[in-house]
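[Q] Does anyone have a clean structure-token version of this?
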Amino acid sequence: MGICLSKKSKRSTARIYNKRISNQTSSSNRWSRIRSSSVQSDDAVISEHAIAAAILFQQQNGGLLPFNRSMSVRNQRQQAMSRNSSTTRRRSVKDPLLLPPQMIVQEVNHDELETSHIVLVHGGGFGAWCWFKIIALLQECKFKVTAIDLSGSGIDRFDPNAIKSLSQYVKPLTDFLEMLPDGEKVILAGHDIGGACISYAMELFPDKVAKAIFIAASMLKTGKSTRDMFSHKDNMNDLMRQAQKFLYANGNNQPPTAIDLDKSLLNDLLFNQSCAKDVVLASISMRPIPFSPILDKLSLSDSNYGSIRRFYIETPEDNAIPITLQQIMINESPPEKVFRLKGADHCPFFSKPQALHKLLVEIAKIK
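[A] Here you go.
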């Protein structure tokens, strides 16, 4: 038995059918927009990694820091970051917050600064590569930035196991400072054992250092070594002990020559607030830490080291140099001012790059 539809019913049915088609088209368009936005977001990530790769490539081919990116690369990055990002994945609290350039760049009157040149000194196992986010942000603010590869670190060809002293480890930094023109000053920023390195350099070149910034770093008194910093049993947690692997390049019956870190524990020890991509970059880029420089005691004088303004940046979520140990160093050798980088792990150049950049600029502006 057939069903007979009146003209009115047919028109009504047609409207319903057309509405369904319209809804399907709208849904399809929404899906297309989601996929398109996701692709755009991926493009932004690729662009960021391309910048990092370009930095490393420039270093490996004898390029001198600071790193100058072409305008085309800058424009691509700005365009990618300025698009509205929408993905189907829910944001994790550990994901880096990428802000549009206009929200990152701070107004800085460089004529009012004692110096606009910031020298970044990495910590144990790292290299100049670890600062790539900070370099980009500072350069957006027109700072001159130099990132140093200490001996046996980054792309420096020296064997970490063959480094016999702190002075040998710090030589790339001291060579750089020695070559600075008379009257030119820089701001030194050291991370981790890079704190001991900049302290050593401050003692040698007090007239070339305007300020020193210790970022979750070893800020030691005279007569102390980095090893002394961890000498109290409460200052080295079990995770640090588990992660350390001593290397004996001269034989097992000789003292250790370097310390390597267990890659499986890096995330918990150093990067507990950092995103996965940065952890991967670090795990394939880090090198063993020379052992001898950790043993060397610093000789610091009030007339040289003590004449330079010091600032400390605390990292409260730090599992490598716990906040309690940072505060012990601060109390024993008080700096001019202490800043706390909320939510930062041991490597704030990964976990809190924008906030760290903001503090570096703020310290540079202090008169």
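[Q] Thanks! Anything notable?
[A] The longest strand covers residues 209-215.
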